[in-house]
Specification:
Length: 428
């Protein structure tokens, strides 16, 4: 990702560069046109001045001819000739290129020429004058160098100005961004943004303040509802379960009544477990757990493995352990125990009889894999109450709780399917 200023500056510099590149031939054409116009006027003045000076001399015809010959010999840039019969007596302006006469090296010069008629002693003469024009290649080089110089000045100036302005103009935005980064919805503390004289930033701060205030209100209401609902449900669920347990112990029940009561008891047990899990999720999301403990992860894992040993034996599941000792992490021991227990129970629940489970732990990764037949849908895997198998004994919240506990600790949980095994990995 790039900063906003760089995204604005780059197109601007490209635009300026394109304009300056296009300006080089435009500059050349404008300068060349001005030069030609000035040279045409200069040549015209020379013609008029030459005619005036020769008329002032009051020469005889013979002396005039000799003077014109002398003029032509000592003025290589001009030429005075008598008018020929087919001369139309019209002026002409043209540009020509020719080799320099005083050097043998190849050196072509460009000339701007004027051919006009002047009158000396009331006699018409064809007067031609030519003036050297600056080399076009040299002109283009000079203009290009000048353009590049100013482009560099523009770039350096723009970078300098952006650096200076970004510190002051963008300071309110950066202050707002820093406060948003530190904001925690669980603290339910409003953010007081600093006032700024920039209209856009002030509108942004006002909109954010309203949004945060609304979210805090909604979050508080949702939190209270979840906690109250979970707590209030616990008591009637416990009473119902107790009554059902008493009813199941009655000897007066028929077999049909007993089956109905047993199904009710299972459903009630599952409802109680869902309620407890929802309350646990609410507490995790509300940051109601301390995460400053130093936990012996391998010790908790060994205890959980011993606690579910009976489940392994019931389904005749072979277990492979690769657990290193003295693995310490920072976090909450109760949540870590729930995470390990849920992950192992999830593997047991979704492993067919005579299957296999592998548990690995090193300093960075905790991994549980179990045998399976087909890959699970990773998009639905950690969603609440999603059903990815025919197993109905779970609450549908086990993997969601695992994901929330990992997020609470700053760990990352992932799933993959390889070699006919479902593999859940947690990067500690």
């Amino acid at each position: 990702m790039k900063p906003l200023l760089s995204k604005i500056t780059k197109p601007f510099l490209i635009y300026v560069l394109c304009v300056l590149v296009i300006s080089i031939p435009v500059y050349y054409w404008v300068v060349d046109t001005i030069w030609k116009s000035e040279l045409d006027e200069h040549n015209k003045i020379i013609a008029e001045k030459t005619a005036y000076e020769l008329n002032q001399l009051q020469l005889t015809d013979q002396k005039l001819v000799e003077s014109i010959q002398l003029w032509n010999s000592i003025q290589p840039g001009t030429d005075i000739q008598t008018i020929e019969k087919n001369d139309s007596l019209k002026d002409s302006i043209f540009t020509s290129e020719k080799q320099k006469s005083y050097t043998k090296e190849p050196n072509i010069d460009r000339f701007r020429s004027l051919s006009t008629v002047i009158y000396i002693h009331n006699k018409p003469f064809r007067f031609t004058v030519e003036t050297n024009i600056e080399e076009s290649q040299e002109t283009i080089v000079v203009i290009a160098i000048t353009t590049v110089f100013f482009f560099i000045i523009i770039v350096l100036g723009l970078l300098f100005i952006n650096r200076k302005l970004s510190g002051s103009v963008w300071k309110p935005f950066r202050d707002t961004l820093e406060q948003l980064k530190k904001f925690n919805l669980n603290n339910q503390t409003k953010i007081e943004f600093d006032h700024t004289d920039t209209v856009e930033f002030e509108e942004l701060n006002q909109s954010l303040s309203k949004l945060i205030e609304h979210n805090i209100s909604v979050f508080k209401t949702q939190k209270e509802f979840t906690e109250n609902a979970s707590h209030e449900l616990q008591t009637p669920l416990a009473i119902l379960k107790n009554k059902l347990d008493i009813l199941l112990q009655s000897e007066d029940l028929t077999e049909k009544q007993y089956r109905i009561a047993e199904e009710m008891n299972k459903a009630l047990t599952r409802s109680s477990r869902i309620n407890k899990n929802l309350l646990l999720l609410a507490k995790i999301e509300n940051n109601q757990f301390d995460n400053s403990e130093v936990i012996r992860f391998d010790t908790i894992l060994q205890q959980s493995m011993e606690a579910v040993q009976e489940h392994f034996e019931q389904k005749n599941i072979s277990v492979q352990e690769d657990i290193i000792s003295d693995v310490k992490v920072n976090g909450n021991s109760s949540l870590t125990e729930i995470l390990i227990h849920n992950l192992i129970l999830n593997a047991i629940r979704h492993t067919l009889p005579d299957g296999s489970i592998s548990v690995k732990l090193n300093g960075k990764i905790f991994e549980v894999s179990n045998s399976g037949t087909e890959e699970l849908n990773a998009d639905l895997l950690f969603k609440r109450f999603s059903k990815l198998s025919s197993e109905s004994g779970g609450s549908g919240l086990g993997l969601s709780i695992i994901q929330e506990i990992c997020a609470f600790h700053g760990w990352r949980v992932s799933y993959r399917f390889e070699n006919h095994h479902h593999v859940f990995s947690i990067n500690l």
